[in-house]
């Protein structure tokens, strides 16, 4: 346990705020809340220390957002928890300045977040939350947690923020093979770094998924081949998308990651929001231009002297079935545009098939107190509050589980500090940090003042939180 973390508050003294999960988004909230006088906050995480996608912390990989999208700067550039202050504390300001880089190494971002988490007294690790319930007698949420040695604790909170992150998504045909018998040969890209040496020795590796993670795994495996491409694994890259497409990174296109677009998206009917998220895959599932260029360059070098790269790229392909076949696997796939199925054999499979928000088990006891939508997801308002039964007098917030209500910016680090500031203001009942509501040149939707026609905008998830359930402003103690 971090020696700087606070002890559990007495049962009759609830915390103003308890955060469950310490990933970048709740860590952002913890960092911004650290400067608020009289705000008693605690953040809990099951891990022994902060870590961020450790399976993909490969040398040479970078964030896909500029360093200004750190934990605090987009909401409070004066905060001591900024990335620039991290550089200053590590005596690296001049090297960073001379490097002239806007996108920082992914390993460095992880180290920066650990630096913040280790110094914030509100962050407590080795504390797995096992239940969140509503305690009528206390008029607060009861948050039960457990350490690795089995010790349990319980704290009360007027307000709770869920920042538990997302979980790896694995195609259904692969799920039966995620057992110890296939360990290191069938895996999600989240575990790639732990098995990359074993995969590099395989005869043939198939990578599924056309996003940044899939591209980085493909690039790493190609680089593990011998210089002439003869040694190392044969690399096959499959994706359902019609192309291995670059991520949208134009200055105007990036305005989809602004408060303006969130406001526009929330005003659309639910079925249109669902369709938009699917159509906008290049905004959050594409590959950086630089990574695609590096893959191309690696393959080009292998053609010197008449060679051929031991790499196959197959877009527009969906995995239909997988069977264990001796010391490898037989994959049945379908090419959509040709409407043609085919089968091939591979030695190992890496599913770089993304992540999704899931309902945490610790909320099971509150299942009937959460107003789930028709698909079992949170209904979330413009301040990231979850709609609850009126019997609950506290407020539940959520981070990175609202793509269905807020759009493609939900998992993006660009909006992390802005969203955390919005939540912090709501928690405190006053403007602690002013945040912009307009940040884009683009007008999303019809211009104001234009004549309305067609179906009215609807937002089935915009369930207001009744006024009587708003938290009391947190000010000086009386």
Q: Give the distance, in angstroms, between the N- and C-terminal Cα atoms.
A: 32 Å
DSSP summary, beta strand count: 18
Radius of gyration: 24 Å
Poorly predicted parts:
1-7, 457-478
**Helical stretch tally:** 12
Q: What is the N-to-C order of secondary-structure elements (H for helix, E for strand)?
A: EHEHHHEEEEEEEHEHEHHHHEEEEEEEHH
| Helix-residue proportion | 10-25%
Read across the widest sheet, the strand sequence of neighbours is 3-2-1-7-18
Quaternary structure type:
single chain
Summarize the main sheet: 5 strands, parallel
Quote the beta fraction: 15-25%
Average pLDDT confidence is 91
Structural class: alpha/beta
Shape: globular
TL;DR?
The chain has 12 helices and 18 strands. By secondary structure, it is an alpha/beta fold. The chain has a 5-stranded parallel beta sheet with strand order 3-2-1-7-18. A 5-stranded parallel beta sheet has the order 9-16-10-11-12, covered by helices on one side.
Can you tell me about this structure?
By secondary structure, this protein is an alpha/beta fold. Helices cover 23% and strands 18% of the residues. It has twelve helices and 18 strands. It has a five-stranded parallel sheet. β10 (204-208), α6 (212-223) and β11 form a beta-alpha-beta unit. The protein starts with 16 loop residues before the first strand and ends in a 50-residue tail after the last helix. Residues 1-7 and 457-478 have low confidence and may be disordered.
